[in-house]
């Protein structure tokens, strides 16, 4: 099976140039001018950008949360991801205290095995550290290729871990070459403020934001960064929303700590006022950490541009408005947290970022694909277009204008958080390992075609670009 993508503009995190791309089987074989091969199918990309498939480092498919389960599973969620130009997701595998890590991973394999239409991998939640966990972790890193662990500093009495657990996870990760991820909010402070608000009779969605102040995110981010320095380890802060957290990350980085940060499109284009929509509509905009006051958006864009934040995750965590979000109709603390974004992540970044002059085209590719591939042990198999890389490729029309809506999106959820938003640009054709998943804006992939990816151990040198590497 051979294809030549012709006449397009190839965009990577490093370069933008006109070239043809020859794909043989599942890999990029060569890149050059006027390539020809009589056996190859010609794919015309005239007027299009051709960039590496998006790597979304933050999804929650079919995840139990708040007494319900996220609506998109590995089938609907990866189909939507592919429509949106993403060809790899890394999903969070939740663990249960007292149960083996292996059993949690097996559960996640069962959810995804026959369903995913694009490639995928797992991060592993660490909720406790004990002898059993310490014994299992090296085996899991080796056998499952899971090289990133997630610790929640919030969601008290549910997922929240204490500082000892975080610190010991950081030490263990350092020892075995893994990256520790944190949901950084001070869960104890939030618990107190939530109880107080409810006692005072405040039940509306806006109180979700008011009881999770940005200072509580900044404090937890700074604490996690300091513990990382103390452990001489490595940290990735998920879904950064605010100035206080960005400042802590920048401060840690200025001291030479290995700390990276992710933000999400929702924090770049939506703000706290959405939670005040009438008729409980504000529940559609309940994320943790919450949407912030508008000025934080400029701080986040600036941090992406200046390199203090390095990736964009969708935090795909979709719940229907009817039947799921309304579990919190009389109590904001019962509204399932999260929203649908896996399909719109790349387009929002292109339209609001590149088109509006906030980031360059190459920075865009770095943010939606390359950096996550590097940080999470997938580069250069994923995250770039180069000879030997997987042929995960997006052919993207940079000119088309469209309006985002629940009526046209492919996520399995009854609303769009971006209803009516106009964006410029759309993926037209998406290849996963050389095969069409989206062809001329139609899904032509197959559930089960997506492969589970074992990832390499954390490699800080890829970040500082000191090292040459082999295609694997
Ligand atoms: N972010 C959110 O509100 N829901 C998903 C779970 C998490 O990432 O904290
Ligand atoms: Zn989180
Ligand atoms: Zn999340």
UniProtKB/TrEMBL annotation:
Keyword set includes Metal-binding: yes
CDD domains: D-HYD (cd01314)
Cofactor: Zn(2+)
Coiled coil: none
Enzyme Commission no: 3.5.2.2
Top EC class of this enzyme: hydrolase
Keyword Acyltransferase part of the UniProt annotation: no
Entry keyword set: Hydrolase, Metal-binding
InterPro entries named in the record: Amidohydro-rel, Hydantoinase/dihydroPyrase, Metal-dep_hydrolase_composite, Metal_Hydrolase, Metallo-dep_Hydrolases_sf
Domain of life where this protein originates: Bacteria
GO molecular function: dihydropyrimidinase activity
TM segment ranges: none
Protein family according to the UniProt entry: Belongs to the metallo-dependent hydrolases superfamily. Hydantoinase/dihydropyrimidinase family.
Protein name in UniProt: Dihydropyrimidinase
Organism of origin: Scopulibacillus cellulosilyticus
Gene behind this protein: hydA
